[in-house]
Amino acid sequence: MSGYSEVLRAEMKPHGIRVSVAFPPDTDTPQLAYEEPFKPVETKAIAGNAKALSAEKVAHSILQQAEKATT
User: Fold this and answer.
1) What does the alpha-carbon distance between residue 31 and residue 48 come to, in Å, rounded to a whole number?
2) DSSP structure class, residue 3
3) For the chain, how big is the Rg over CA atoms in Å?
4) Structure pTM?
5) HSE (side-chain half, CA atoms, 13 Å) at 32
6) Strand, helix or coil at 17?
7) Which of 5, 11, 27, 39 holds its CA 20 to 30 A away from the CA of 48?
8) 38-65, pLDDT tens digit by residue?
9) 3-state DSSP call for residue 7?
10) What is the DSSP string of 18-71?
């Protein structure tokens, strides 16, 4: 996804179209709660003891970083 977005970003830049990609951390949603019992050990190890962030906080951060990248 990262490589694809870099190519897309380069191709769209002359047209004034910006491309941003977000890889958010665990986000406190009903989907995350549903997936929790089925997560592989490796996935749990990657997350470690990190607490899931609220959807609002994740969305705000994504928008803030996307706007910052344009200045």
Assistant:
1) 19
2) H
3) 16
4) 0.70
5) 14
6) coil
7) 5
8) 999 999 899 888 899 999 999 999 999 8
9) helix
10) ---------EESHHHHHHGGG--HHHHHHHTTPPPEEHHHHHHHHHHHHHHTT-
